Amino acid sequence: MKKGYFGEFGGQFVPELLMPPLRELEAAMRDILPSDKFRAELDDLLRNFAGRETPLTACPTLSEELGVHLWLKREDLLHTGAHKVNNTLGQALLAKYMGKTALVAETGAGQHGVATAAAAARLGLECVVYMGATDVVRQAPNVMRMKLLGAKVVPVQSGTKTLKDAINEALRYWIAQQDSTHYCFGTAAGPHPFPTLVRDLQSVIGRETRAQMLERTGRLPDMVVACVGGGSNAIGMFHPFVDDASVRIVGVEAAGTGEPGCYNSAPINLGRPGVLHGQMTMLLQDGDGQIEPSHSVSAGLDYPGVGPEHAHLGAIGRVTYGMATDSQALEAFQALTRREGIIPALESSHALAWVLNNRDKLPAGGHVVVNLSGRGDKDMEIVREVLFREGELA
Amino acid sequence: MSAAIHTDMNDMLPEAPVSRLEARVTAANAAGRPALVPFLTAGFPTLDRFWDEMDGLDRGGADVIEIGVPFSDPVADGPVVEAASLRALENGVTLRWILDGLKARAGRYDAELVLMGYYNPFLQYGLENLAADAAAAGVAGFIVPDLPLEEDGEMRALLAARGIDLIALVGPNTSEERMAEYAAVASGYVYVVSVLGITGVREGLPPEVPQTLARARKAFRLPLALGFGIKEPKQLEGFPDRPDAVVFGSALLRHIDAGNSAESFLAAWK
Lengths: 394, 270
Prior knowledge:
The complex is a heterodimer. By secondary structure, chain A is α/β, with parallel strands linked by helices.
């Protein structure tokens, strides 16, 4: 297999000026990441700064309704509110070992931006976050958090003014500032080695889940489910189970409003192979290869591409990629809130929505783990708006 | 096969035909000047005016015209080229429109033509069809800024089979060893990026440009074209080694956007 590829997907489709920093990062992954010193320091940060390990929570009410044992992997309980911090702490620490003094990051909903800003503040690094101008308005509280944490937030006015444009701008910044700055990429996508680096840093989710299931039930789960935007929480959950044939793996893409031809964020289901942001992957694009705008009620899934390893796992049939619509996600959001006392992020609500809407595909009487990748505090405004509109909230 | 025998066989082979792009740059240099290589986004500022400005650049003495194929996400470009690209897309420009337009005008231009654009539109067109249609449209070369050596094998081979060059890009952070890897496959000319950055006009060129040119001179036997941030001849004054060709993009687009003709932009360089 070609270097940096997962089957047909992946690669390094970047300007030549970015090849040296990518190679520098590959070398750091090889030389620094596996060292005992780095491992120990990262482990301490994950444990005592971020709050690992995260609980595996049983859901008695929904389990009863669904006829399966439903479990949640509680990444929502991590510092900064989502799984993102697993990645940013790892990359920030790596950057520090590499002698970099600053981080640049892109962010959509702002969760990765906040997690990067927190890691940078903790480790004494400068931080610049690019964020689409539309998202800056939509996600004002996260902009405030980033600024409080000392990050410089730069609104991106070009293109669709959302995540994909923020990535373009962060890549441009990195070209110019590569000597001092590490690009703390937020998801398991982009040019090699980012998909592998982010997967390795997020795989702690699946490793813990595996050990917790064995300890609590004496067996592996029958099914693991996670939402897929770029796909970092999902690949982190999936990767440690990929070689276990007995474990069915389901990724859930955002179908948007759901009617045929609507804007969506489901490139594995509704897109075609193509090249964007340094990678060959499944993309939402028109017939001429121009990237289409994406949509999801959950800003964290709102991206026209997907990590190349997901594209590959879908192509070979190891992972089933389903979809959930905006309204299904909102229903799942309410179901978990009312029935189990947990307010999930709208991203994670998509994973749960697939479970609630595909009962015939669940392993009856078996164990299903949903990765609850983040908490819903950040989504209060949008949930209030939608429920108010639908008359469910006075 | 041993290296020695390999070399001997190479010595016996006839010289590869010199590329049209290489020949054109060399001819300009023989006339005592750098080859002039304007970049113009296809369909900018309007569909009709684009073709008028193409004629103007050709009349005005362009040796090579780089035609920008617009893409929604031009990651190596600054705000001027990106804005031109997005405007062209709004104007309805597609790769097919560009190739059909060039085919209809085949033989019209004295300048050699290069298509410059990101990989995905080329890939979606189909690389084999692209090579065939580009050849029919009189295109002499391609520049694909997001297609480094690791990924360019298929496209390079398909273009080479039609006598079309895939131009190598190198920059201030490209090592001599890396340049040598490109030199083993490169043809046409070499695009030397002046700055660790994106396209766009800069007042002064960075001080490391002469070193970058010197490294490229050692690695390549091909002509060197300097681009990114170039506006006027005085920027090159004092260079120990003048580039063989100069590329101007953002400065030209701004000049046109301000209501001036492309032809008048070239006057300063003659």
